[in-house]
Specification:
single chain; mainly beta; OB fold (Dihydrolipoamide Acetyltransferase, E2P); five-stranded antiparallel beta sheet; 0% helix; elongated
Amino acid sequence: MFLHPTLACLRKARVTIPQLSPTHTRARLLEFCFNDEGISDGSVNVSCYDPIFILECSPDMISEGFRKFPDHCPKMLVESQEEGSFRRKLDIKLGIWYNVETVVGEIDDGDVDDPSEDKWLWQAYSHE
């Protein structure tokens, strides 16, 4: 029996701050969900459904009429739908506001011949 790996596992993906709604513009990283200190090459192995980081999103992520209060900044847990070695960018800092689509790292499964990078696949959940 020959099993084919999924397409999500056969590529290099740019990990970005996801745009969680059509109006969402900014977010700040509150926490990475793993400890990458002491790892010699700065990478961490991740599997599908592993949480990657927690974001605090700008109030514009939610329509004004649905916010708990006018400047409500919802927190979201973002998990990867990619497998491979995650390496975060060293210049990305916690607590700083970044625009959506800002690259925070990459996930590489090591088997990619194509040097181009794709956007990553992710899921996000409320982290209130």
